[in-house]
Specification:
heterodimer; A: mainly beta; Immunoglobulin-like; C8orf32 fold; 11-stranded mixed beta sheet; 8-stranded mixed beta sheet; 9 helices; about 15% helix; B: about 650 residues; alpha+beta; 3 domains; 11 helices; globular; disordered N terminus; DUF3857 domain-containing protein (chain B); signal (chain B); DUF3857 (chain B); DUF3857 domain-containing protein (chain A)
Amino acid sequence: MISTVTRLWLFAALLVCSHGVAFAQKPGPPPLQFGAVSAADFTAPAPATDSTRAEAEYLCDYGTTKIEGSNAHFQVVFERTARLQIHRKAGYRHATVRVPLYTRDGEAEHLTRLKGFTYNLQNGQLVKTKLDGSKMFRETLDKNHLQYSFTLPDVREGSIIEFTYVITSDFVFNLQDWQFEHTIPVRWSEYRAFLPQFYTYKTITYGYRPFAIEEALDVRYSTTVTTAAQGITPGTDQHITAMAQQMRWVMKNVPAFRPEPFMTTPGDYMSSIHFELAGVNFSGDYHDLTGQWDAIWQSMSTNAEFGLALKKPVPPLTAAAEALRQRFPDSVARAAAVLALVQRSVVYNDEPRLYVSQPLRHTYERHLGNSADINLLLVQTLRAAGLPATPLLLSTRDHGQVQTVVPVVSQFNYVAAHLSLRGRPDILLDATEPQLPLGMLPERCLNGQGRLADANGRWVPLKAGGRHTEYRTAQLRLSPQGQLEGTMKLEYAGYAAVAARRQIRQSSAAEYTGQLAQRWQEWQPGAPRLVVDSLEKPVSVELALHHTLNSPDAPLFYLSLLNLPEALPYDFRAESRLYPINFGMPRDHTTVITLALPKGFVAQELPAQLVLDLPAGGGRYTYQVTQPTPESVQLLSRLQYARPVYGPAEYAALRAFNARIVAKQAEPLVLKRQH
Amino acid sequence: MRRLFLPTLVVALLQTGPISQAVGGAVPKYPVDALPAALRENAHAVVRNEEETFTVKSAARTVATMRRAVTILDEAGADYATELVYYDQLNTVSYLRGTVYNPAGLVVRQLRAADIRDYSLSDGISLANDGRGRAADLRQPTYPYTVEFEYEVVSNNPLFYSTWHPQPREQLAVESSSFRVITPVDMPLRYQEQRLPEGSAVVHTQEGLTHVYQWQVHDLPALEEENDAPPITEQTPAVLTAPTAFEVQGHRGTLTSWQTLGQWTYDLNAGRDELPPAIKARIVALVQGETDERARIRKVYEFLQANTRYISIQLGIGGWQTFPASSVAANGYGDCKALTNYCKALLQAADVTAYCALVRADEPDIRTQFPSSQFNHVILCVPLAKSAKPDTVWLECTSQTTAFNYMGGFTGNRHALLLTPAGGKLIRTPRYGVAENRRERRADVYVDAQGNATATIRTLRTGLEQDDFSMLFHNLAPAEQKKRVADVLPFANFNITKFALVPGTSATVPSMVENLGLTLPNFAPPSGKRVFMSANLLSRWSSLPAAVGERRADIWLDNAFAYSDTIRIHVPAGLKPESLPTPVKLTTAFGSYSSQIQTLPDGTLQYVRQLRMPVTRFARTEYSGYVEFRRKISAADKAQVVFVKTDS
């Protein structure tokens, strides 16, 4: 039995209760003191991990978040102190640090109190070089993002570097995330959040590494909020004392993160922690902010960049939708027509977004927009055509998986569309990709579950609306002189067709077939012919093949006919695997070859039939050689992966499966010349 | 009017047909119907009209204005519907305008200010980069359509004059393109014309107090990409231009020769090589007692590599002037100019004179016939003063790991502008040819009775052949190195049992030695009485597609090289070769190839393959011969050995 994907989801709703105030606990000392590096730190014993062979490592990375009173509001104060050792020259880049900051509607994050040192051991002496804070560079990335960069001085192999900074933020709804795992090893990573009882946060944990310490202490809390001046009345200081929770998370000896093939985004696999404000309670009444879908939907439906945007009609499309309503009484056909209409009205600018960048009317007039611009336009047009469409919120594969236990809006980054027709399963649609059929989402959207943006907010599985299917059929003839000739037909269906159409669109039919011919170079292909395309059929290419066997007059011919290009579509080269293998969708690859034998030849040996199964119905490989007539041989090979995702425990089986397939496909067919 | 307008649009949407000419009543521009069929062939887009004007206001200021209308024929041409205008501290964008036309040539939309994005072109590598872009996106969902962009950039960095490339990409046709340069009468333009069609040579006039130079091309059909060809910009018309006099942030210079360009750069950076006394003293102590000049240089270079690192900084005049040596001494880092200047200062302290040299790294070589600012990097050149015959040491100062006196593929095999007190001097960087770029492989393969095999493989790579492996070795942990090597092994089924990548013993060029142990399940699967195996374990070379139609471009190969493979295959008792492939020997103008298999007295099979490619440039007329050469090699590389079982 193969375990399903193991993922750690940790939820802690920090509902601070008013009882339990009587006893306050004392948090432990911080794991490092800035500036306290000694010569002894350079000879610290190597831990069990391979960290000293890495280019650099975090000796300690320590962050705290506190909520403090400020002018008329609360703010978040985040402090980070990190100490790294640079082992090799390749690790020098870790001595350059970039700190991105967010700003919006006059509220901002500020970087202050930057300090840093580089420590070198020279002839047994500790030499300390100070970071010149004025050498910090500020860049405005775009209207919402700033970036500060600094680099530590005098860095060599073996240097220990240390830096600390504070970010103060007006964004109480979103605390700073913390990343425990990096592309270099981490000996100790610790995050503490000091949260007063009147704010309640939900925490969301990602990754596959266990915490060494995870605790919550009740501690005393006091702060001062300065109220705003009113007229000539000056502002006054208001002291607040309450209880708070000191949350603490520690990971120890985390090896370097290494991406593997068939992954979504590295962020899905690296250990990290995230926060979302769930509620406030200043007066004794708890106000849930995001905990309930009702509240989220209330906020989204009245948001000018979401719900309200949908309400403003786009007359030309509305008129067109009404025309389609007349023309297509059948709702499925009508939905397909509306989808095609929106697809050819707007170009996707490759920006996955949850909110519109402009009114829908502008999107239509510009013929260009992000995913929310386009798919909200799709929803609106479907509705205008009398179809009950709903926006579908989701997170793309390179944005990361969503958790479905607590509704959190910030985990979504994309809008697609959903259509519910009586007596039919859910229909998922997306107008960002031309030629994408009704009922299929682009590959980037095949990522767990999406949430319907309506009052109910139901979760909808983002299932692939098809498989990745490749089907190849060859008709070959062998001449007595060892000339192989014939035709090959390559067909791509489901997501393979989506990918092929995209390649053709983004180059041209001629370039596509040219590249294909290059892959089949060994078979001296004739000019491939692209069969006229229609969305209902697979993409289909035909090409003539020629191959000359090496020894034309030999008494025996050995033919490894299945050694074709891309005979093994998925290659598992690494010997082991830490994380799930995410294919996105089931896959199916079939090759059928019919070989006409030359006169005077017989098949001496036919390779034995083989059926291989992956455990738990995970997939199958079928190989079969038959002689439908004495003058011909037929070879069939079919590789099926039944599931979109395989767990790391299944990797060994997948790899062994591949090894056997390779061996089988290399077995030659032996033909004998009869005299 | 409005009521009429909407249904028209709806009809247009449903049929994706052209919008009625009645709308707007304007005179059509760039109608697609007017495009000659010859320009649509093989094209994703057609430049309908491009007008570039470069005005030299003074030695310190230039203004470039551009108007470009492109008809986009399909999605692959859609990039031409977007525009990114670069600016920084020394360059300002005066305006950026855009218009979309339908196939009939009528305006359907104007670019609005709100649709223009402004963002940092931060490269994610530099510590600081002041480069920014104004970006516009006018892509449309149905084809064809035409976009027109107009913009103006005022530059206070007039060392760079425009280079005119009217046809800069494959599959782009040009209906009409013109380039105009206007200069003050006392600042005549320097220019070089390349591959201009007949009748396109400069038209030079004097209008009052200005010179006007004008070029024009029209009806250039789209070109298709070819294998092993020079970059497209080396195949299509171009005009290079350069100032005779310029001024960058108060620093005046003349550019009439390599000598004067070098002089300005030398003077701009003069006096910035003063070292703190402590560093000077360290260097003096470091080389004390070392009399050999080369050894002294090596010691200083090793000091540099151990104590500094490269940090990219891309800011304003910083592009020309180095940070002082004292700054590198204090911080331990710098960009290419700063580290090269610092190393020069360190060598000075060791009583060795060195010169900075400008070079165009990682791209085709500069045009030596046209002195102008064509460089992107600085290296250090150290002529050996005490050597019996002329000899030079070359140092790459931005790398902490590059071998002493090695330029590699990054800066080798090209020209560099030496910066001396007497001005610039063009010289050649070291050449790495067939004698230097070698790959020598020896392998032993042990096959068992079931057809499984184990192999030990030792590969020595030298010169340019080792560049990538040296990078692997220095930049990645051993486990990652092994993974990268595994990714390119040409086996479908294998396990690595041993892996070691280490630098070889030093010679004139650096080398890397890779030792691999492999298990190869099913390497030689028995099939009935026979066993098949490929003797050429790792070195297969692919064939090339034949040219479609006449070959247009000359053949440019990357580097000269020589490969040799000796594979010994140890087969189990009870197997004897049924057939051995016939030896192949090819000797051509392109290179030579040989492969042969023989049985050694102890029954071991020995496969020897040799490939030498000493020359890298050939005329286009030789392409079919080259394809044939590659086809023969490809066929010979695949030869199989067939064994029969003798004991059954």
